[in-house]
């Protein structure tokens, strides 16, 4: 080989440079004083903490620039704790940097790999011992052992069975039945068409049979948005148009993307927007997706009025509400 | 011998006669730790974990992990009389009626953010310096595991207060679970104990948050540190530092004081943030209700990239034999993160396959000397940044007067185009830095001083580098590319010829380097000067 590829040689560790405090007694004394002062600052922090805990009223507020009006009790507890901890740290680090040995020392490494003879020893030990157990010679034990070990894991898994019920039809059903009244949320009052002006929007729930309490599980599926526009603004096929009533149209409020509440209605554009991932639905076209990651329109609830003039559902939702799942269309 | 020494001696003797620990301790106390600011990132991770354990334990004394409906009667007037879960009510109680409770909640939350940020920074340090190479692959994998679990743990903790914001996060997590083909609905019903939100979820994630995952963290962190201890720390290259030694400060007392002191500094800074920087003001959001939502819902930052991916996904849903496959959820929510984390875990093995390098490495790389790796890192960071930006698209839109549509299209295109661009640019930067190093070694440092030569020409005076500096700039290895192995020595065609070709192609790209100056180059140059 030519010597072209010889790398530059290693000049070795640079010489140690002494710090001031190593050579100058005065500098060392000064460093010592500084460390002591830092520890004392920590003591002051703890005192502040104790004072704040006992002496500052829990609902005392102070005005602090940038932060605005702040709870004084929490603020000074925090500042005291922060000081108490921080200055212990600063003192220790300053001590280490100025006064403790700063000579770099060298330690040597060994390869991680064991020595060949140790490895051979290990292999032969394992072989010998395994041979003594005689697994290879007693296939019956081996097979039954594997079988039992394989099966024993089933029990704990089975025990998890009661973690939850099976879904059944739960994901596909809501409390909306034919003739269920729409009631305000909050308030639970039935609604007449005249209660909602053109341009208005309201959140409604299905009226529950007497004695049934509304749980969050119900709200997670039943929530419906009621929107009123001028009937001529609809751009719907005949069936969907028949699901509206005098310009009132109802959609599931649970986003067809990942289930957030679709809460923002823009009156001018007649768009519904989900704040989670900005899926945008066009109210005039049966909540068609016009932007964002959702792949489906919001399910539409057919509405009409009952004999007393209150808004009711004409029929249940004709598809599951909320995010998609594997068996959704089955 | 002073009295104190005598007592200490007796205690030490008592313990050693029963444990034989003196020998081990002696070795331990003189163990050498190399020093560099970037080695403190891992320490921050460890310390913030300890802070999480301490502050979290404090919170458990009052927190009530129950979805039972209660009426709020605490001292925060605006919510007075409202129906809410006991979990939310107890979180309000901690915030308003436990002295120092809000401080502890805020310390816990800030520590969680610092924990995650320090973990990411630590991981980048390890990646860009090549510290994951043999023999440290196990620790790299443990690190990727800790990062993944950290995201889960943080998300679960964020969900515990059961406010409107965190409930919305759970809703989205439930939709991801439900979207899993075939078993999704079953999984979701098992996890939630029925239909969403049910009445079980908070108490279940509580056990995971305070027992299961912290236990796993503790085990993984212990193994991680034992390996660091046993394999000894890597060190940055420089004069006197070799693959066979480790240069630094002994554990006792210097390193102990620095590391111990640093723990208090990290704790102090976290406490300061908890004192002055409000975080997750749950009382503003109100209790969770699936029919309501707050505008501008934002997850913590370590979830932001996932959120951004979900937001930019095209609205695709497929139907197979009447079954629904939610590609718009599965691809950004599970498949892409799965690929990223698997790829990250496997990277050490991929790199060593490409370079064919199976040796141990204890000296770190300067990032410029591993251009492909550095470029790959820059590419991944760019990807994450684009997704993170899209995760905040609604905030950006209102702050900078853009339309969400514009940001969405920027992100959709950017997430595909910008990462490769970052790769190419970073690689070029690395190579120019290598060239600059070569120039420095060969021609010395420009001093800015001009001298006039006898015939009137001006030249700038170059100062030769110190041997230490010159060594630092040239100590790295430059591995040759691996050739494709098309046939063996008997001319029999290699059955894995395609694999071999791919590898050689990658290896050639990996080996693109600016040749470093050799001793001879320098000598010739010196000869030329005289
Ligand atoms: C890596 C570890 C951990 C992370 C990343 C983490 C993260 C979080 C986060 C982000 C919160 C929400 C805080 C808020 O804004 O109210 C939280 C809440 C909570 N965490 Fe942790 N945590 C961790 C470990 C622990 C441990 C070890 C414990 C207990 C032993 C714990 C107990 C709690 C409790 C009780 C809450 C509810 C507090 C409330 O609602 O007011 N955490 N956690
Ligand atoms: S949940 Fe509505 S857009 Fe994602």
* Ligands and ions found: protoporphyrin IX containing FE, FE2/S2 (inorganic) cluster
The rough form of chain A would be described as: extended
- Rounded to the nearest angstrom, the radius of gyration of chain A is 38 Å
- Overall strand count of chain A: 14
**Helix fraction bin of chain B:** 55-70%
Give the distance, in angstroms, between the N- and C-terminal Cα atoms of chain A.
75 Å
SS content category of chain A: alpha+beta
Kindly report the greatest chain-chain contact and the residue count on each side.
Answer: A-B, 99 and 117 residues
Determine the mean pLDDT of chain A: 92
Radius of gyration of chain B: 29 Å
Total helical elements of chain B: 19
Classify the beta-strand content of chain A into a percent band: 15-25%
Q: CATH homologous superfamily name of the largest domain in chain B? A: Cytochrome Bc1 Complex, Chain C
Q: Uncertain runs of chain B with pLDDT below 50, 5 residues or more?
A: none
Strand order of the largest sheet of chain B: 1-4
Taking the alpha carbons of the first and last residues of chain B, their distance comes to 66 Å
Strand content of chain B: 5-15%
Instruction: Tell me the number of strands of chain B.
Output: 8
Descriptive notes:
- The complex is a heterodimer of chains A (about 325) and B (about 525).
- With about 325 residues, chain A is of the alpha+beta class.
- Among the domains of chain A are: about 20-100; about 175-315, Rieske [2Fe-2S] iron-sulphur domain (Rieske Iron-sulfur Protein, 3-layer Sandwich), CATH 2.102.10.
- Chain A has 8 helices and 14 strands.
- Chain A has helices at about 20-25, 25-55, 70-100, 115-135, 140-150, 155-160, 215-220, 240, and strands at about 60-65, 70, 105-110, 180-185, 200-205, 225-230, 250, 265, 270-275, 280, 290, 300, 305, 310-315.
- The longest helix of chain A has about 30 residues, at about 25-55.
- By secondary structure, chain B is mainly alpha-helical.
- Chain B folds into 2 domains: about 30-300, Cytochrome Bc1 Complex, Chain C (Up-down Bundle), CATH 1.20.810; about 365-480 and about 515-530, no CATH class.
- Helices cover about 65% and strands about 5% of the residues of chain B.
- Chain B is built from 19 helices and 8 strands.
- Chain B has helices at about 5-20, 20-30, 40-60, 85-95, 100-130, 135-160, 165-180, 185-190, 200-230, 250-275, 280-285, 300-310, 325-355, 370-390, 395-400, 405-445, 465-475, 495-510, 520-530, and strands at about 30-35, 70, 85, 245-250, 320, 325, 445-450, 460-465.
- In chain B, the strands form 4 sheets. Chain B has a two-stranded antiparallel ribbon. Chain B has a two-stranded antiparallel sheet with strand order 2-3. A two-stranded antiparallel sheet of chain B has the order 5-6.
- In chain B, helix 6 (about 135-160) packs antiparallel against helix 9 (about 200-230), helix 12 packs across helix 13 (about 325-355) and helix 16 (about 405-445) packs across helix 17 (about 465-475).
- The longest helix of chain B is centred in the C-terminal third of the chain and has 40 residues, at about 405-445.
- Chain B is globular.
- Chain B starts with a helix and ends with a helix.
- The relative contact order of chain B is 0.09.
- Chains A and B meet through helix 3, strand 3 and helix 7 of A and helix 5, helix 7, helix 8, strand 4 and helix 10 of B.
- Strand 3 (about 105-110) of chain A pairs antiparallel with strand 4 (about 245-250) of chain B, so a sheet runs across the interface.
- Bound molecules: protoporphyrin IX containing FE (HEM) and FE2/S2 (inorganic) cluster.
- Chain B: Its cofactor is heme.
- Chain B: It is a multi-pass membrane protein.
- Chain B: InterPro entries: Cyt_b/b6_N (IPR005797), Cytb/b6-like_sf (IPR027387), Di-haem_cyt_TM (IPR016174).
């Amino acid at each position: 080989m030519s010597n072209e590829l010889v790398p530059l040689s290693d000049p070795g560790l640079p010489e140690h440079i002494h710090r001031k405090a190593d050579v100058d007694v005065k500098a060392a004394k000064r460093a010592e004083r500084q460390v002591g002062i830092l520890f004392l600052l920590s003591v002051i922090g703890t005192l502040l903490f104790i004072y704040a805990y006992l002496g500052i009223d829990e609902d005392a507020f102070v005005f602090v620039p940038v932060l605005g009006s702040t709870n004084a009790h929490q603020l000074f507890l925090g500042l005291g704790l922060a000081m108490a901890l921080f200055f212990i740290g600063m003192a220790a680090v300053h001590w280490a940097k100025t006064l403790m040995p700063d000579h770099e020392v060298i330690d040597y490494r060994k390869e991680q790999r064991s020595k060949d003879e140790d490895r051979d020893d290990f292999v032969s030990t394992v072989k010998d011992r395994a041979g003594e157990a005689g697994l290879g010679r007693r296939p019956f034990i081996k097979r039954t052992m594997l079988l039992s070990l394989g099966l024993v894991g089933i029990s704990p898994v089975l025990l998890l069975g009661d973690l939850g019920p099976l879904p059944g039809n739960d994901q596909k059903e809501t409390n909306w039945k034919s003739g269920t009244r729409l009631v305000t949320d909050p308030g639970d009052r039935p609604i007449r068409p005249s209660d909602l002006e053109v341009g208005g929007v309201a959140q409604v729930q299905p009226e529950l049979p007497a004695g049934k309490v509304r749980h969050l599980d119900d709200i997670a599926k039943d929530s419906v948005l009621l929107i009123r526009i001028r009937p001529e603004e609809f751009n719907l096929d005949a069936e969907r148009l028949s699901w509206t009533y005098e310009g009132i149209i109802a959609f599931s409020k649970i986003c067809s993307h990942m289930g957030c509440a679709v809460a923002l209605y823009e009156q001018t554009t007649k768009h519904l927007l989900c704040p989670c991932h900005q899926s945008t639905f066009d109210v005039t076209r049966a909540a068609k997706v016009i932007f964002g990651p959702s792949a489906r329109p919001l399910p539409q609830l057919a509405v009409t009025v009952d004999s007393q003039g209150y808004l009711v559902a004409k029929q249940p939702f004709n598809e599951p509400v909320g995010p998609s799942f594997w068996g959704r269309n089955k | 011998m002073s009295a104190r020494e005598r007592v200490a001696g007796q205690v030490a003797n008592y313990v050693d006669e029963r444990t034989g620990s003196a020998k081990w301790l002696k070795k331990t106390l003189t163990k050498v730790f190399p020093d560099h600011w970037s080695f403190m990132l891992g320490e921050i991770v460890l310390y913030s974990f300890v802070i999480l354990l301490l502050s979290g334990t404090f919170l458990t004394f009052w927190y009530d992990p129950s979805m039972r409906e209660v009426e709020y009667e605490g001292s925060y007037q605006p919510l007075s009389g409202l129906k809410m879960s006991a979990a939310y009510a107890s979180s309000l109680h901690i915030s308003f009626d436990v002295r120092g409770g809000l401080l502890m909640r805020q310390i816990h939350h800030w520590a969680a953010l610092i924990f995650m940020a320090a973990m990411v920074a630590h991981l980048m340090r390890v990646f860009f310096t090549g510290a994951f190479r043999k023999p440290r692959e196990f620790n790299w994998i443990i690190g990727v595991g800790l990062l993944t679990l950290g995201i889960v743990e943080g998300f679960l903790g964020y969900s515990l207060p059961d406010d409107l914001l965190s409930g919305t996060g759970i809703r989205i997590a439930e939709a991801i679970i439900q979207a899993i083909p075939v078993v999704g609905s079953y999984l979701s019903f098992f996890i939630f104990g029925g239909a969403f939100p049910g009445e079980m979820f908070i108490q279940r994630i509580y056990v995971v948050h305070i027992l299961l995952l912290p236990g796993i963290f503790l085990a993984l962190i212990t193994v991680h540190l034992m390996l660091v201890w046993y394999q000894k720390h890597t060190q940055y290259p420089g004069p006197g530092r070799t693959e066979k030694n480790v240069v630094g400060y002994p554990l006792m007392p210097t390193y102990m004081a620095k590391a111990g002191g640093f723990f208090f500094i990290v704790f102090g800074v976290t406490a300061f943030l908890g004192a002055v920087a409000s975080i997750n003001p749950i009382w503003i959001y109100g209790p969770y209700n699936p029919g309501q939502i707050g505008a501008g819902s934002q997850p913590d930052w370590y979830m932001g990239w996932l959120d951004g991916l979900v937001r930019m996904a095209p609205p695709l849903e497929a139907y197979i034999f009447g079954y629904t496959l939610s590609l718009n959820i599965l691809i950004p929510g599970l498949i892409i993160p799965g690929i990223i984390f698997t790829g990250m875990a496997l990277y050490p093995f991929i790199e060593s396959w490409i370079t064919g390098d199976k040796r141990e490495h204890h000296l770190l790389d300067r990032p410029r000397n591993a251009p492909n790796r550095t470029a790959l890192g820059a590419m991944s960071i760019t990807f994450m940044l684009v997704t993170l930006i899209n995760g905040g698209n609604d905030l950006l839109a209102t702050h900078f007067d853009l339309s969400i549509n514009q940001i969405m299209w920027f992100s959709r295109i950017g997430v595909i185009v910008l990462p490769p661009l970052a790769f190419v640019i970073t690689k070029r930067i690395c190579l120019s830095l290598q060239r600059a190093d070569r120039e420095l070694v060969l021609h010395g440092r420009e001093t800015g001083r001009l001298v006039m030569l006898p015939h009137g020409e001006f030249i700038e005076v170059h100062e030769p580098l110190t041997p230490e500096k010159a060594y630092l700039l040239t100590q790295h290895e430059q591995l040759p590319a691996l050739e494709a192995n098309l046939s063996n020595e008997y001319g029999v065609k290699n059955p894995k010829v395609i694999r071999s070709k791919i590898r050689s192609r990658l290896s050639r790209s990996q080996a693109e380097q600016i040749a470093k100056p050799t001793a001879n180059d320098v000598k010739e140059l010196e000869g030329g000067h005289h």
